[in-house]
Amino acid sequence: MISTRAFQRLRNVKQLGLAHMVFPAADYSRFSHSLGVCHVTQRIIRSLRRSGQAIESDEEQRYRLAGLLHDIGHYPFSHAMEEAVHDHYSELITVDAAQPQEAVPVAEEDRVPWLNHEAVGKEVLTHDEELLNVLNSAGIRPEEIFQIFAREQPPRFANLISSDLDADRIDYLLRTAHHTGLPYGAVDLGYLLGQVRVDNNGQICIHPKALRTADHFLLGRYFDYQQVAFHKAVAAMEWLLKEVIKHLLSSGRLDCSTRATRERIAQGSWGSVDDPYLLGLIRDLAVNGAGTVKEMAEAILYRRPPKLLAQLEYIDPRSVGAGRSFRDRRRRVNELVGRWAEELGLPLDRWYVREGSLTMTKVGANIPISELPQLDDDETNQAIRVLNTRTGASERIMADRRSLMHVLADRALYSLRIYALIPANREAELNEIRAHVHTGLDDDEWT
Fold first, then answer.
1. Is residue 379 predicted with pLDDT exceeding 90?
2. Which pLDDT score is estimated for 104?
3. Containing structural domain, residue 56
């Protein structure tokens, strides 16, 4: 399986997008990460066996393969490109929805104009001839694998691959800490994995002895995201990347439609759609492009991130009211950006307002009744669960009053940042531009 072209492609897809432009050694690939997820999955399964859980070798093999192949459908530069593809095709859907529709059959490719990386992975598993031959020779059906990582009718141990405490997140945290030099991956992994259990309802959980270690893991992951994925320069560079990709899509130089993706997979050319392929398109745009998008392409190639002009970060309850207040602030900033663009003579396409919220867990400790209809049962089941050794049942970690998550799961970090891509001939004006922006912000929490 590792030798197939579809899997070898992951050697040329960076796990962390453009994070290596801030953390130089953080340029590891989806290939090494996928091997790690396969390894951690096996360690968890063997821990379950030691605790008395019966797991047949063919079932173990399926979960190991799901760990190995969970990222096989990732686009170049991972999530940044996936978000750009989503934005581009979502805008097309919005435009089409405004037009009168005729009562004619609609092809599936037009109903679903783009595929997320899990859906691409499913397509690769079911239509890549080389990979299919490997699965068939082992007597494994593709759906037995993608049902695990795509959580389509997830089998009993799907949380091993996708949950708040899964092999994917464990490997990601430790590997990112190693390559960035940051300390947030210093988790007692051996102890944590050794305390994985299955409750009397068949759900994966941890022994209460590992409660502190699980808290530590979730805290480490929170700080890792804040310091790496949300780093001001990483976020700025990835905005440039998304804008350039959207331009490539809208200009027809790049086609990531469902139809085109399926054709590449069926023809065996999906293996060449990797980071170097996309960088080639960006280099061409830097040479032959024009206007702001040409500058953006150059900024990606030569690391010239947009400048952070102001930012607002605060921790508030994870609630409908807090979310509404945050969105109101976002709308106000959008209005101001339009005014600043005119006053400063910086076109709107050079401005970026990044909004984000970061939580410790998928769901909070206290879920208001008003939010229950919006929650997916499968999503709530992905929380870390803590075994009750007396009853044999388990409960979500945020419901356990001994856990830090009992308090922290109900909080979120809300963040707004204002960036601008400053032309080279105006960089001397940066302090004046920052001062102008801060003058228009009427909130003392902005820095």
1. no
2. 42
3. 5-250
Give the tens place of pLDDT for each residue, 405-440.
999 999 999 999 999 999 999 999 999 999 999 999
- The pTM is what? 0.92
Which residues is 414 bridged to in the sheet?
A: 314, 357
- Are residues 85 and 213 located together in one domain of the fold? yes
Rounded CA-CA distance 154/144 in Å is: 10
Phi-psi region of 100 (alpha: psi -120 to 50; beta: other; left: phi over 0): beta
Provide φ and ψ at 388, rounded to 5°. Answer: -95, 105
Q: Are residues 119 and 242 in the same domain?
A: yes
Q: Based on the fold, state whether residues 138 and 239 are members of the same structural domain.
A: yes
Q: Hey, how many other C-beta atoms are within 10 angstroms of the C-beta on 33?
A: 23
The lowest-confidence range among 19-23, 101-105, 117-121, 270-274 is: 101-105
